[in-house]
Amino acid sequence: PTEAVLRGSLKIGSVPPASLTEAYTECTTPVCTSQSGIKVYTTQGASPSSLDANAIFEFTNTVYTQHPSARKPAKYLLNRVSIVHVGDKKEYTKLDTSHVTISSCTTSSAMPGEHCGLTYDEEFSGWSGWRSDNSVDTNPEGTWIEYNFSGPTQINMFAVKSWAWEPRRIISLKLTFSDNSEQQFNLSSDQPQHFDRYLLSSRVTTTSVRVTILDIVGDYDTGITEMHFYAPGHASRASDTPCEDAGLLPVSQTECEAA
Asked: pLDDT by residue (tens digit) across 182-208?
C-alpha cells in the first residue's frame, strides 16, 4: 500500500523498532520493498509470508519526533486497527461535532480589541474574547452579548468559557431567544478552565441568542472568551458523558441523552 493508504487506515503509532525488546527484522520481500519511502519491520524474519499485527511501518521521509504535541505526522505506525464495539445495536452513526455557525454579534459594550467576534474564533486560551467596558457598563451584571444566525436555527445545547482570571468568573447567565423566551443557567465553578457544555431545558428554534450575565465573582468588568451553540444530534468537544465521548448513537436516535 502507498503511504497515503497506510496513514488513512492505521492510526496507532510506534517507537522505533530498535527501541523495543522484541527482535525486529527489516522485511525484504518484493511486497515490503515495493513502495519507496516505506520500510517494514517484522518479528517473523526478513521474508514473512504475511504481516501480522506486530509489524511496523517506517516512513523514511518523515522526521522522527518524540513530542506528539508538535503534531508531526507519525514516522512509525503499527499494523493494527483499534475497533470499539458500543452497545448491542447493529447500526450506529457518528455525531457531528461541529457547532452552529454564528453570522454576527453585538454587545452592550466592549473594551477596545476585545470584541464579540473573538468568542467564536476557536481560541480557547481563556485570555482572548469579549469583555464589557466598565466605563459604559458600570455594573457587569446585566451586560450582554447577542449572537445572530443566518436564519431560523434549532439548538439544544451550548458551551461557554469565561475569562481565566477568577474575579471575572461568571456564576450565572440568561439566554433570550428571538421569540423572547428565556432560559437561565448556573455555570460550573471550574468553567474558566474548561469549555463546559449545558443542555437547554427544551429545544429552541431561533434566529438569535442574547446572553445576559446575571451574576459574577467580584465586581470587575467581565465577559466571555468562547461560546458555541449546538443543534440536536451534535456533540460538544468538551463533552463529559461516555455517550458523547464515543460520538456514537443508534441511527434511530438523534440525541445522546436518548441513548
From this structure: 999 998 776 556 678 888 998 999 999
Q: Is the whole-model pTM more than 0.70?
A: no
Distance between the two ends of the chain, CA-based, in angstroms? 38
**How many residues are given for the chain?**
259
Report which of 187, 191, 185 is spatially closest to residue 209, judged by C-alpha positions.
185
